[in-house]
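Hi R.,

Here's the chain you asked about this morning:
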Amino acid sequence: MIFTETSLKGAFTIDLAPHSDERGFFARSFCRKEFEAHGLDPAVLQCNISLNHKKGTLRGMHFQTAPFEEVKIVRCTRGEIVDTIIDLRRESSTYLQWISVHLTENNHTMLYVPRHFAHGFQALADNTELMYQVSQEYSPAHATGVRFDDPAFGIKWPLPVSVISKADSSWPLYTPQAAVWV
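And here is the predicted structure, written out as tokens:
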């Protein structure tokens, strides 16, 4: 695996290092030792799949509060997405900054999302599927988010939103006083 730190400290893209022959290729997509060697949390307690029927579907911006903060490793297994994360760590030099990464079934790139980051994505093709490895169990009582279109972040989504859940469209706008993730 090839680990590349993004402009948000602690967030990485992870590319496969495939071994190819006439059959196709073989590549490792997870190795506890390699994650630990890069100072990353390798815990995986849950794996999730997200299927998105329509191009333009937006999910996010999600995170969980203490004690259920989670690390995510996200990979697009069918179709393509723009995967977006926001640094919500108050002590971070990149606090409130965001990045987007293009994940596709063909590039096999993964995104490592640290604790205290909001995460969301937009499907760029119909019937897009994602696989998440998550370090914490889902806790509805600790699940929260921030608005995908919050002017405090100014995220530039590539497509008009075609489908979004009521919950995702009604997350509160960000205010430092309302921040619950510390």
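One quick note: The chain has two helices and 13 strands.

Cheers,
M.
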